[in-house]
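May I ask for an example protein's residues together with how it folds?

___
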Amino acid sequence: MPDIKLSSGYFYVNFYRELSELAVQLLEIYMQNIGLTFENISLLIDFKETSKELVYNLANAVEARSRETGAHVQRVSLICERLALLYGLSDHEANMIKHASPLHDVGKVAVPDSILQKPGKLDADEWEIMKKHVDYGVEILCRSQRLLITWSLVLRCERRTLNGVRAFDLQIMGI
C-alpha cells in the first residue's frame, strides 16, 4: 500500500517497491489530471465570483444613476437572502436569490434622467414611466439562459402584486 501525503500544495506518493515504467507513466497522467481538476475548480470559483461581481457592479451603476441612497443594492440583497431563509428555502436557494436580487432595478437604465434624478415627488405621468422600469428590466434579462438571471426574473414578481395591491402602492403605504 502506498504512503500518500499532501503538503503545501504538493502531492507525494511513496511506494515501497519499484514501479514499472508503465505504472510511472500512468501515475504521471493521473497526477496531471488531478492538477487540471484543481485548476478547473479554481477557474470555476473565480468565474462565479467574477459573475457575482459584475452583477453587483451593474446594479451599483444603476443605483448611482438614480437617487437611491447608499448601499441600496447590498441592503436589498441581504434582506432578500434573509427573507428566503425565513421562508424556508435552502441555503443554496437563498444564496441564489441574494445574488440575483441586485438586478431588481436594472430596468432603470431605460428611465430618463429627468425622472430618475428629479428632486421631490413625481407627477402621475412621471410615476407611470418610473413604474415601467420593471418591464424594461424583464426585457433586458429575459433572453438569458443563466439560472442567476432566471432567479432575478422571478424576483421581478415582487414588484407586481401582493394580494391584488401593486408593490409600488405598498411602498407608498410604507409596507
Q: What stands out?
A: The chain has one domain: 3-172. Confidence is low (pLDDT under 50) at residues 158-163, 167-175.
